[in-house]
Amino acid sequence: MSYFLGIDTSNYTTSVALYCDKDNTIISKKKLLPVGKNEKGIRQSDAVFHHTVQLPDLISEIFEGKTFDIRAIGVSVKPCNDKNSYMPCFLSGISVAVSLASALNIPLYRFSHQDGHIVAALYSANRLDLINDDFFAFHISGGTSQVLLVKPNDKYFDTIKVSDSLDLKAGQAIDRIGLNLGLKFPCGPELENLALKSQNKLNKIKVFRRDGNFSLSGVENRCNKMLTDDEKPEDIAMYCLSYIYSALDDTVIELMDKYGKLPLVFSGGVMSNSIIRTEMQKKYNSYFAEPQYSSDNACGIAVLTSIIDKKDNKK
Fold it and tell me: φ, ψ for residue 164 (rounded to 5)?
């Protein structure tokens, strides 16, 4: 059996995945980067250091002394497909991937972190077939809050940015509000659990938009005022999620008016939120990555490596 190794060193997580194309299974190992208490993120120099420490251990764990027929290696080299997209943290993964591919004399494929999120979501939803069709990909996380029109090409797909946050990213907003509520960073899971205790329901809120893009800075200001006014933490958490949901829902409505009713594919750590997911699935033809495939991971990179390698070998 052939295996494909994926490596991803994002600003939050060190991750490695081994994909078997014969039985469509994945072995995945990942570890969050350590972030100090009450800190809102991690410096790139620290991220590079921790990836350098964690990556060899994860590779050792995934192989566990076993021998696999590694056909090719894939690695994320930048956050997204924008021309000037760059973050030093990805250098850690590139270094290891280049070394392994050279030592094993096998192909190395380079992708964006965002490409990996899209394919991980398709794999998780059992809809890898959509890679041959047009669809909207929502990548909503701490580093990115974009909507892409995905169109197939001869290689795998092109991504065209059709909507973006004008300011705060959704994950940033959640983390800032969560930290003010005394939650642990990254705050997404704890904020969701807190919101589930609220008597309020997810509802539509007016969100500022401009030229197809949305603003999320207002949610931080509003939640801080709610906190000052001694409103219940669970209600503040639900308001935060309602605001983000509203921004996404308005974006879907606008995009469908412009491009038609294409499938929606959601990925990124924020989209592991069950409250937003349930509402979106009620309204639209939408597909969500399961939580383990929605947060940062190398699974999509490994699967995409398999797809590209097969195409290259048919040429």
Answer: -155, 160
| HSE of 49, CA atoms in CB hemisphere, 13 A | 7
Kindly report the number of other CB atoms within 10 A of residue 159's CB atom: 19
H or E element that contains 124 = helix 113-124
Torsion of CA 233, 175, 51, 272, to 10 degrees: 80
What's the rounded Cα separation, in Å, for the pair 149 and 140?
Answer: 14
- Predicted confidence band of residue 189 (pLDDT cuts 50, 70, 90): very high
Amino acid (1-letter code) at residue 277: R
Q: What is the pTM of this model?
A: 0.88
- Separation CA 121–CA 112 (nearest Å): 15
What is the enclosing helix (H) or strand (E) of 9? strand 3-9
Residues 6 or more apart in contact with residue 89 via CB below 8 angstroms: 9, 10, 11, 44, 47, 48, 51
* Dist CA 109 CA 156 (whole Å): 12
Sequence-ordered list of residues with C-beta below 8 angstroms from that of 84, at least 6 positions apart, any chain: none
CA dist 173 and 238 (Å) reads 13
Mean pLDDT of the chain: 94
Average pLDDT over residues 135-140: 95
Token pair recorded at residue 27: 């072995």
Report DSSP state, residue 291: H
